[in-house]
Specification:
The protein is of the alpha/beta class. It has two domains: 35-118, 3-Layer(aba) Sandwich (Rossmann fold); 142-266, 3-Layer(aba) Sandwich (Rossmann fold), CATH 3.40.50.720. The chain contains ten helices and eleven strands. It has helices at residues 10-32, 47-63, 78-90, 109-113, 127-134, 143-154, 174-183, 198-202, 248-251, 265-286, and strands spanning 6-7, 37-43, 66-72, 96-99, 163-167, 187-191, 207-210, 228-231, 235-236, 242-243, 257-258. A hairpin with a 5-residue loop joins strand 9 and strand 10. The longest helix is centred in the N-terminal third of the chain and has 23 residues, at 10-32. The radius of gyration is 19 Å and the shape is globular. The N and C termini lie far apart (59 Å).
């Protein structure tokens, strides 16, 4: 058994990525004489969303980026929401647009997203973005799986030729993570609530990424000794503590490398978002160059 698994430290990597991003933003502004701008569309009423948006605003300030918030009332109509997204998509001064999810009922996220210019889709949620990712083409990738892949790369964990399992098939984490692993030449199995004998699948895999939203779904006994574990789960317990989808205590004794929760994939996600904003800004400004 692996009693000294490498801890894939998301906080340390996020700090490294922030340093790199700030240098890249400075270079961009010196070249284009333009400040990258992120616009967030948020419907009021969700405390978790409020915290997330505050964190993004603070990070934009730290990175020297502009931040614009369109704050809509809880009873906003679909038409007003769609129009706000459309206006930001058409605004040349805005380089990236983030629709803060989840949207309250009866608003339709699917309809709202269709008013978003996919070239400014810094959260990778537009169907065109998803299609490009599925085809292995250049695209804006959802930031959570992008952060998971960055952890694997930065820690020098081999992916090509490895067998990988992704537990969870959501459109924003599980499916794109599977596609990214596939593009990196892993052999990928997607597992979900209808998968029979999950343990038998995971025991054959070198890399296990879990994004199911169920605490302690995966235990150390289900893992192949030496497996690399990426835990995307964020589950708030009755006592207020946060745990992942993987039972850390048993898994860390079996894995060769593992992300903790908190402090694993989470801290990297926000930096990946702003990196996408810089990418979209560069794409849009480069088209205007002679």
């Amino acid at each position: 058994m692996y009693m000294t698994a490498t801890i894939l430290d998301g906080r340390a990597l996020a700090e490294e990525l922030r340093t790199e991003l700030r240098a890249d933003v400075d270079a961009f502004m010196a070249h284009y004489q333009t400040v990258p701008q992120l616009a967030v569309v948020q419907v009021q009423g969700d405390a978790a969303s409020d915290r997330y948006v505050r964190n993004i605003r603070k990070l934009c300030s730290t990175m020297g980026m502009q931040f614009h918030l369109t704050h809509l009332p809880p009873d906003v109509t679909q038409a007003i929401l769609d129009n706000a997204i459309q206006q930001l998509s058409n605004d040349a001064a805005v380089h990236g647009v983030l629709i803060q999810m989840p949207l309250p009922a009866p608003l339709s996220a699917e309809q709202a997203v269709m008013h978003l210019d996919y070239r400014k889709d810094v959260d990778g949620i537009h169907p065109i973005s998803a299609g490009l990712i599925a085809q292995g083409r250049l695209a804006l990738v959802p930031n959570t799986p992008a952060g998971g892949m960055e952890l694997l790369r930065r820690y020098g964990i081999p992916i090509a030729g490895k067998r990988a399992a992704v537990v969870g098939r959501s459109a924003v984490v599980g499916r794109p993570m599977a596609a990214l692993l596939l593009h990196a030449n892993a052999t990928v199995t997607i597992c979900h609530s209808h998968t029979h004998d999950l343990t038998s699948v995971l025991r054959e895999c070198d890399i296990v990424a879990v994004a199911a939203g169920r605490p302690a779904l995966v235990t150390g006994a289900m893992l192949r000794p030496g497996a690399v574990v990426i835990d995307f789960g964020i589950n708030v317990q009755p006592d207020g503590s946060i745990v992942g989808d993987v039972e850390f205590t048993s898994a860390v004794a079996v894995a060769s490398a593992i992300t903790p929760v908190p402090g694993g994939t989470g801290p990297v996600t926000n930096v990946m978002l702003l990196r996408s904003v810089l990418t979209t800004a560069r794409n849009q400004l480069s088209l205007q160059e002679p």
